[in-house]
Amino acid sequence: MEVLRPQLIRIEGRIYRKNFIQEQTYQHEDEDDDFYGEPMECSEELGDSYVVDQTERGFQCAVSVPSLLFKYIIGKKGETRKKLEMETRTSINIPKPGVEGEIVITGQQRGGVISAKTRIDVLVESFRRKQPFTHFLSFSLNQPDVQEGFLKFQEKVLEKCSMDRGVSSCLFQNPAKLHLTIGTLVLLNDQEIQWACELLQQCKEDFINKIAGGKALLAEMLGIEYMNDDPSMMDVLYAKVHMKDGSDRLQVIADQLVERFVSSGLMMKEWDKVKLHATVMNTLFRKDPTAEDRNNAPASKSGPRERESFDGRNILKGSSGAVPELEIRGK
Predict the structure, then answer these.
(1) Are strands 179-185 and 102-107 parallel, antiparallel or unpaired?
(2) How many Å apart are CA 248 and CA 226, to the nearest integer?
(3) Model confidence over 156-214: pLDDT tens digits?
């Protein structure tokens, strides 16, 4: 991380910078950062978006945090929590490890409670980004006719290109798992999973049905592309997805879904717009057919996962139009 270009974190419509003091590896834990941001002054305007209750002894605020992230707020030997409490003049009550529940902040000054809550939000968001994704938000592309067309494409590639460097049947996606990925999510407890389900249902009611007009959206996978710059050194080959009527309705739905999930805090925005594609070949499948489900996981201590590329130049020459029309319903 560059000092002059710190990582920015968006929380509840506001943007904070992430400042590192030091990074340590805790014993018996996987590279947990002993991170603590610079003290922040929190205005009353900032606190207006927080629910802070007044009690007989001062003020109180509850923060919903998955239990998996408690250790980052506690810190090594409780150092992070102690520092939070000391600098904000609050008391921070955290449930026992493994027990889901809210973190409760109490203090005599409302501003101190707001400051502690803000810093906890920044800590949680920062370490959430380091977790491997747990769920896909995607359109399923595994209808029977699509699977049949995909298997024909696979058969054609293996027939014509099996002698090309690195090309193998193990590189192909499982036909039953064909999908158009909209985004990835880190959902760390049942509450967040339920929240995501409710948000998706709300998106359906708010704009998906309206854009789709209550009818099926006819799309097609036509033509293929690759992820890197050199077709002789491919890692990922994907099918391009288009609306059959030439409209951008599928793109609009995908982009609005991402916008809604990003604003909720359940998803991180990676690109300006969703790239409509379906992975058909991936070198991660060479050693692990389920690798795509975890390809956002942090690199292991031994380094990044090694990939053996393949030469896809001949596949590009003869595969356009090999994958048939498919149907995606606006659900």
Answers:
(1) unpaired
(2) 22
(3) 999 999 999 999 999 999 999 999 989 999 999 999 999 999 999 999 999 999 999 88
173 in the same domain as 104 = no
The answer to whether the CB of 105 falls within 8 A of the CB of 74 is no
Domain count, the chain: 2
CB atoms within 10 A of CB 210: 12
pLDDT digits over 243-258, tens only? 888 999 999 999 999 9
Non-local (6+) Cβ contacts of 196 within 8 A are 135, 137, 185, 187, 261, 266
- Bridge partners, residue 80, by sequence: none
Domain that holds residue 89: 48-130
Question: Are residues 239 and 275 located together in one domain of the fold?
Answer: yes
Q: Are residues 151 and 280 in the same domain?
A: yes
Q: Which two tokens stand for residue 127?
A: 């370490």
Contacts by 50-54 with C-beta closer than 8 Å and gap 24+?
50/114, 50/117, 52/110, 52/113, 52/114, 52/117, 54/110
Q: Tokens in use for 12?
A: 């509840």
Cβ neighbours of residue 288 closer than 8 Å, sequence gap 6 or more = none
Place of tokens 């959206």: 217
Please indicate, yes or no, if residue 71 is contained in any of the structural domains. Answer: yes
User: For residue 137, which phi and psi values (nearest 5 degrees)?
Assistant: -110, 115
Asked whether residue 33 is domain-assigned, the answer is no
Residue at a domain's end among 130, 160, 189: 130
Cα(161)–Cα(166) distance, integer angstroms: 10
Task: Tell me the pTM.
Answer: 0.74
